[in-house]
Design a protein that fits this description.
Layout: E1 4-7, H1 17-26, E2 31-37, H2 49-58, E3 62-68, H3 76-81, E4 84-90, H4 97-106, E5 110-115, E6 133-137, H5 152-166, E7 171-175, H6 183-189, E8 193-196, H7 198-201, H8 206-214
Parallel strand pairs: 1-8, 2-3, 3-4, 4-5, 5-6, 6-7, 7-8
Length: 216
Amino acid sequence: MSVKIAPSILAADFANLQKEVEMLNTSSADYIHVDIMDGMFVPNISFGLPVTEAIHRHAAKLLDVHLMILDPDRYLPAFRKAGAEVLTVHIEACNHLHRTVQYIKDLGAKAGVALNPHTPVAALENILDDLDLVCLMSVNPGFGGQKFIQGTYDKIRKLRQMVNERGLSTMIEIDGGVNQTNAPLLMEAGADVLVAGSFVFTSPDPIHTIKNLKGL
C-alpha cells in the first residue's frame, strides 16, 4: 500500500485559499492537513475555526486537523463541527490524555496524538491501543519550512515495532521537513502518512509533486 500524503494548508497562499483547496481536490493527496496554533503552546498563531470551516466547505478531501494548542478539550466539538475527520492533540498539552482521546472518539472523529521531537515514543505505552494515528513531529512545531530532525527515523522504527507487536492498525504520521529525498527513508522506517507543506506549495507544480511523493 502506498504512503498517504497530507499537504499542510499552512504553507498555502492564504490570499487564494479556495483555489489552493480546489487544487488539492484534483490532486492525489489523501488528506488536507490543517495546523491550528494558539501562540501559547507553540510560538506562532495560524488560524482557527472560521478558516477551518471555509476550508471544509470547498474540500473534497478529509480534514486532518492538528491542534497545537493548550487545553484542546475546550475546542474539540467546535473543530469536529467545522469538518475535522481526524483530530490530533499533543501529548504535551493534555493533562488527562485518555479522557481527551475518548472525547474525540465520542464526537465521531478519528483520534490522533502528536509527539514533539523531545518526547519519546515510550510515552504512548498506555494510550497507543486507543489511537487511530500518531503524529511524530520531525521539526519543532510552530513554523513551516524548518529543517528535518534526523533522530525521527529511530522514533519511527521504535513506534512501528510497538504498533506491529500489538497488532494495531494505528497509522504513523510524520510532520515537518518532508521532501522527495527523505520520504523514501521515512516510508522504509515505517511511516504511513507524510505531511508535506512548503515542499508541496512552493514547488512549480504541486499536483505533480504530490503524485511523485505518493509514487515513491
